[in-house]
Amino acid sequence: xxxxxxxxxxxxxxxxxxxxxxxxxxxxxxxxxxxxxxxxxxxxxxxxxxxxxxxxxxxxxxxxxxxxxxxxxxxxxxxx
Amino acid sequence: xxxxxxxxxxxxxxxxxxxxxxxxxxxxxxxxxxxxxxxxxxxxxxxxxxxxxxxxxxxxxxxxxxxxxxxxxxxxxxxxxxxxxxxxxxxxxxxxxxxxxxxxxxxxxxxxxxxxxxxxxxxxxxxxxxxxxxxxxxxxxxxxxxxxxxxxxxxxxxxxxxxxxxxxxxxxxxxxxxxxxxxxxxxxxxxxxxxxxxxxxxxxxxxxxxxxxxxxxxxxxxxxxxxxxxxxxxxxxxxxxxxxxxxxxxxxxxxxxxxxxxxxxxxxxxxxxxxxxxxxxxxxxxxxxxxxxxxxxxxxxxxxxxxxxxxxxxxxxxxxxxxxxxxxxxxxxxxxxxxxxxxxxxxxxxxxxxxxxxxxxxxxxxxxxxxxxxxxxxxxxxxxxxxxxxxxxxxxxxxxxxxxxxxxxxx
Lengths: 80, 411
Known about the structure:
The complex is a heterodimer of chains A (80) and B (411). With 80 residues, chain A is of the alpha+beta class. Chain A contains two helices and five strands, in the order βαββαββ. Chain A starts with a strand and ends with a strand. The mean pLDDT of chain A is 93. Chain B folds into two domains: 197 residues, Rossmann fold; 99 residues, Rossmann fold (3-Layer(aba) Sandwich), CATH 3.40.50. In chain B, helix 4 packs across helix 8 and helix 13 packs across helix 14. The mean pLDDT of chain B is 95.
């Protein structure tokens, strides 16, 4: 089992889609939301994912394929 | 003994012991070092600080370190009165804080000096970072000085020539197949797997504190006062917030008057997530894919972006972004007016300053400090077009011909 802290950024057309619910259902991942700001035309959510490492990887790839931007909560660590 | 007391979550305020840790367990927000300022105030004074060594470590009592420090001679870089550039831009008082004159040619030496000192205190035998330039060089150099192993991770798309500045110190240099995002993900996993001091991950709260010394130095070099305006680059946003914190702490300790400095963020248009948020009136920084020549500030998902935004807003400052062409023009303007060869991020700062003055946001009579955070020679290829020699035959006449001058013969 593995844990991963991520930031999801939703474009306007996906804000009303229950993608986090589907992420949990389809990939057997437990999602724990810690911070969020969602309005009718934009949204971001900081959450922790708990599940099998492979399932988390596949789940994040699926979120990306749906049009959600996935970033680490630590921000980028590759610096100039 | 330092006056550091704890790590505190910048969002929810939860506290943690002083240990290698960068995120709050509860809300995953960044942690920062807190201090016993009352005790610190009883120790530090202008006179005592002025007697200290000419390096960032003259402010040691205000930094979170305990034992012997790992120091290459970093800090107390020149604050140059830039009258030629001021005249060009239309300012009465402009100063350039030239932090490209640090041991590995960038401000990163300040943050890395603190982080590597802490790595040794925490008992790490190795330090690591992911970087394409300035940070890599600084980490490798400090690790060499501290007799620690250094691991530097780089995306394999980076040209080998860019890595000479780090490789010379003989770290273990590892190129990673894949994108910057892949390297980001790998490094976070490595932090969990290996007992390494990852400079800007698990040591990040300490690393951050090194940047405060830029604020301290500028105030001291101005004769113990804060500037009216600061223009500084933002990558992760951390440096920008810590310049402010440095000034704010000096006021809190009674070393300067209350701070009324307007803080302005400078970013390249090809990577300006913080400026975008500022201009949109948003508090959330939406990540972007960087595309700019200013590689040293090309961070698309800035960890401290929100906090940099807050500083810009609360200080009555602002934010501006410039194109790569404007940044190069800024580099050349700084070089040709003040004799300072900055990296592209410095060009971004000068070009942003120029816009802020031209639009009347920064007023003519406001004492302004522009921060140059890295030297130009490491990335000099981006201004290679500056080389336009006149070609002559080896005769005096040939020179006179191309210069269109004729000197009188000496008798």
